């Protein structure tokens, strides 16, 4: 390829990279509920729409909703108690709590905008206070806008990788760096949600130490061959327990 063509490619690549950084800076905003400055490129209304649109498919992937209305009512009651007792009630999000029929996968997760899920496999091992810990953690993900932040970060690194590919042969390297950055931030999201979950438990009258028992349940479920922390988006349960103890002391003095 001629030298002039290479210069044009490099200039185009640099322009794309510059655009990625400019857009990222313009998307910086402070989360009014956590005080953390984040890279966000969507509104709360868009988060709600994404969550509502994705909820049926997520339920289907886990065998649909659990058919026992009494158990679902308990999940609803605990979730609503956490929302009404905390800063979550001041957010624009529409919180719904879903008990999934999956009796094999121990899991709980939240979609953008307030759609929270827990599998029966996990629910069946929990007391009410421990359920509150799990749901409080998921509410923390919503308030922390973690999904929206990951979407914005993914867009940033994709644009950066495109610029690096146009300007040279570094596209795959940049994309790999982006994946590592997202992995690290994911662990931070979990710790932030743990801390918020502890706070919500205390505000709702639940014993926050039950959150530690939840971590022990998750650790036992993972077994001795669980993925090392540096390879996982979730911090090791032992590290999470230490952070939870710090949060309990911070918010309750115990």
Automatic annotation (TrEMBL):
Pfam family, one: Peptidase_M48
Keyword check for Nucleotide-binding: no
Keywords carried by this UniProt record: Hydrolase, Metal-binding, Metalloprotease, Protease, Zinc
Cofactor, free-text remark: Binds 1 zinc ion per subunit.
Names of required cofactors: Zn(2+)
Annotated Peptidase M48 domain residues: 72-247
EC code(s) of this entry: 3.4.24.-
Keyword Metal-binding assigned: yes
Gene Ontology MF, one: metallopeptidase activity
Family listed: Belongs to the peptidase M48 family.
Name this protein carries in UniProt: M48 family metalloprotease
Phylogenetic lineage: Bacteria, Pseudomonadati, Bacteroidota, Flavobacteriia, Flavobacteriales
């Amino acid at each position: 390829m001629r030298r002039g063509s290479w210069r044009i490619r490099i200039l185009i690549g640099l322009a794309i990279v510059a655009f990625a950084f400019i857009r990222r800076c313009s998307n910086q905003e402070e989360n009014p509920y956590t005080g953390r400055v984040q890279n966000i490129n969507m509104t709360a209304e868009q988060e709600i729409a994404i969550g509502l649109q994705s909820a049926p498919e997520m339920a289907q992937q886990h065998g649909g909703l659990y058919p026992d209305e009494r158990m679902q009512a308990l999940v609803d009651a605990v979730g609503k108690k956490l929302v009404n007792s905390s800063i979550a009630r001041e957010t624009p999000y529409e919180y719904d709590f879903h008990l999934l029929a999956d009796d094999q996968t121990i899991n709980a997760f939240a979609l953008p905008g307030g759609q929270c899920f827990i599998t029966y496999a996990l629910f069946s091992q929990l007391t009410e206070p421990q359920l509150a810990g799990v749901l409080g953690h998921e509410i923390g993900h919503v308030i922390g806008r973690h999904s929206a932040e990951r979407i914005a970060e993914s867009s940033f690194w994709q644009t950066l990788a495109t610029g690096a590919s146009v300007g040279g042969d570094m596209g795959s390297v940049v994309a790999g760096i982006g994946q590592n950055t997202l992995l690290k931030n994911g662990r931070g999201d979990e710790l932030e949600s743990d801390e918020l979950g502890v706070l919500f438990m205390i505000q709702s009258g639940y014993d926050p130490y039950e959150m530690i028992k939840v971590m022990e349940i998750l650790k036992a479920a993972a077994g001795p061959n669980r993925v090392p922390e540096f390879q996982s988006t979730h911090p090791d349960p032992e590290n999470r327990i230490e952070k939870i103890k710090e949060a309990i002391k911070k918010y309750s003095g115990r």
